[in-house]
Amino acid sequence: MDPHILPVELEKAYRLLNHGPTVLVSATHGGVADVMAAAWSCALDFMPPKITVVLDKATSTRALVERSGYFVIQVPNMAQIELTHAVGSMSLADVPDKLARCGVELFRVEGHETPLVAGCSGWLICKVVPEPHNQQTYDLFIGEVVSAWADCRVFRNGHWEFESAGPEWRSLHYIAGGTFYAIGDKVVVGKVS
Amino acid sequence: MDPHILPVELEKAYRLLNHGPTVLVSATHGGVADVMAAAWSCALDFMPPKITVVLDKATSTRALVERSGYFVIQVPNMAQIELTHAVGSMSLADVPDKLARCGVELFRVEGHETPLVAGCSGWLICKVVPEPHNQQTYDLFIGEVVSAWADCRVFRNGHWEFESAGPEWRSLHYIAGGTFYAIGDKVVVGKVS
């Protein structure tokens, strides 16, 4: 594994999502893996950390999540903006070699079958907390974060370090129609840094 | 009402939240109004637009939401960073004049009792979709957006216009310990603008 990828304490895992980035969702089952983009993912609890993510019934990734009971939420960065838009625009059902065409490289961490997307800034390995009513009615899935990781070049000691990392590490915040915003300047209340 | 505040088509209301800003939640019941900050709010559906927000049982705002069945999610901006941090750090239960001390000014739009916070960039007036299990187990509330508004100096024709508005209009993205990020540069896939 890339030596820059370090574990994140579960108590601080929520911070990877707290600023509302667009994420990638990966899942696998029966030898098939898929990755989709999701703007609608959010922290839900601190400890044990839980998150929500909206997975449309039309997505192939959702079927893999339902069958395996696991998914990974990862925080992509500016260097991956084309990849992020591509995995969000193409379906594995239509394009069997979607991941290769989108330039997605997968890796695994020990003890977990669900693959992670290489090149991201942070990763939350999640176990589905089964809530069939939410899943059916709202496409809303709850995951308990069982393991969290981050690239120490942009997140270390429990903090994002966007200001010292290069612009390619900024998180992505999708709006619509191919338009994203990158995260901007850090502001600490009472002082501007 | 401030003439800059214009209605947002419900079809495009999700765009006010899609980039993951920290929000303010306001509610009223029985002559009492409160406002809190929430980093954990997210779009849930396009049409009719629905959103989620996590409201801790310890907050006074939650009690007003439960009693009235309504709340407003509003998107604050850099000019309101102190206000946002203050309403998120103080409880109406301890500080009866919380809103005055935090510099919160409220206004109403016709047909809706729930007050809006003046000076924000966008407002989503929401009716609670009752889901007692989610509310009790996860502090997770679902709201259907019944009316949406934005300040045309930063959001118009269904689009954020951060790049032409001043830096005081940038949305806030909270991490922890008083640290926020402002939203940054717009990037359209395939071109940098």
Looking at the structure, what is the overall shape of chain A? globular
Please, how many helices of chain A? Answer: 4
Pair with the most extensive interface? A-B, 49 and 49 residues
The termini of chain A sit apart by 34 Å
CATH superfamily of chain A: Electron Transport, Fmn-binding Protein, Chain A
Strand content of chain A: 35-45%
Oligomer: homodimer
CATH fold name of chain A = Pnp Oxidase, Chain A
The H/E string of chain A reads EEEEEHEHHEEEHEEEEEE
- Under the CATH scheme, which class of chain A? Mainly Beta
Number of strands of chain A: 15
Described by strand count, sense and barrel closure, the largest sheet of chain A is: 8 strands, antiparallel
CATH architecture of chain A: Roll
- Whole-number total of structural domains of chain A: 1
Question: Could you tell me the radius of gyration of chain A in angstroms?
Answer: 16 Å
User: What structural class results from the helix and strand content of chain A?
Assistant: mainly beta
Helix content of chain A: 10-25%
Write down the overall mean pLDDT of chain A. 96
Unreliable spans of chain A: none
